[in-house]
Amino acid sequence: MGYGATLAEGWQLYVDNEAGQTRLTTLQGNAGQQQSQTIAFLTGFWTVPPTLFRTPQGFILRIEGESGQTYVQIQPGGVQALNTSPNLAAADVIPLTQRTHSVPGAMPPMAPLPPMQPLPPMQMNPMRMRMGDMEMQMGNASTPDPMRKFCPQCGQPVRVGDRFCSSCGHRLGELTQS
Ligand SMILES: [Zn+2]
Questions:
Q1: How far is the CA of 142 from the centre of ligand 1 (A)?
Q2: How remote is the C-alpha of 101 from its chain's centroid?
Q3: Is residue 115 part of a domain?
Q4: Within a domain: residue 149?
Q5: Gap from CA of 158 to ligand 1 centroid (Å)
Q6: Domain count of the chain?
Q7: CA-closest candidate to residue 77, choices 175, 7, 19
Q8: I need a surface site. Which of 5, 24, 51, 111 has the fewest CB within 10 A?
Q9: Nearest Cα to 141, choosing from 92, 168, 177?
Q10: Which of 62-76, 116-130, 137-151 has the lowest mean pLDDT?
Q11: Is the pLDDT confidence value at 154 over 50?
């Protein structure tokens, strides 16, 4: 849980509280060249949300925590806590936007996705099945049609183990594998 505000173009402020520590982060620059500075103050847990003021001397964030009020001056050159309460009578209040997650600069970088592993090619071992006098081959079998049980010459059904077609006498050499 935290708050954020745009102080100026390309100048962002984020403030959150973690375990009683108020963390102030300023981000300056554009997305390509961004400088971030984080300063932590021991303030205790906030009793009310922090308030951001704009004064002629710069921005001032008032943190009201369990250990009292803390004023932090935010200038383009840096962030520093103030020892004395500033005069905020003429200051403008800058609304802070509630943030559901913490400072973007403090977030762990997204882990790059591992490169997709190419699927290994399907390996099919040559398979041979034998049931009685039926023989079937799959994969790298030499017979292109493993289910062939017909004479290539006359088309009559033949038994796979036969050397010759029983109808026309055609030699069934390629079927006689034993
Ligand atoms: Zn035949």
A1: 21
A2: 17
A3: no
A4: yes
A5: 8
A6: 2
A7: 7
A8: 111
A9: 177
A10: 137-151
A11: yes
How far is ligand 1, taken at its centre, from the CA of residue 147, in Å? 16
Q: Got the DSSP string for 74-132?
A: EETTEEEEESS----TTPEEEPPEEESS--GGGSPPPPPPPPPPPPPPPP---EEEEET
Q: How close is the Cα of 161 to the center of ligand 1, in Å? A: 14
Cα of 172 from ligand 1 centre, angstroms: 9
Q: How far apart are CA 128 and CA 141, in angstroms?
A: 8
Same domain, 33 and 79: yes
24 torsion bin: left (phi>0), alpha (psi -120 to 50), beta (else): beta
What is the 101 CA–ligand 1 centroid distance (Å)? 81
Single-letter residue type at 62: R
113 domain residue, yes or no: no
Query: Considering only 92-101, 149-158, 166-175, which range has the smallest mean pLDDT?
Result: 166-175
- The range of the structural domain enclosing residue 167 comes to 127-178
Find the 150 Cα to ligand 1 centroid distance in Å. 8
Once rounded to an integer, what is the mean pLDDT over residues 22-48? Answer: 89
* Residue that wins the pLDDT comparison between 7 and 175: 7
Per residue in 89-118, pLDDT tens? Answer: 889 999 999 987 555 554 455 556 666 666
Q: Tell me the β-bridge partners of 138.
A: 127
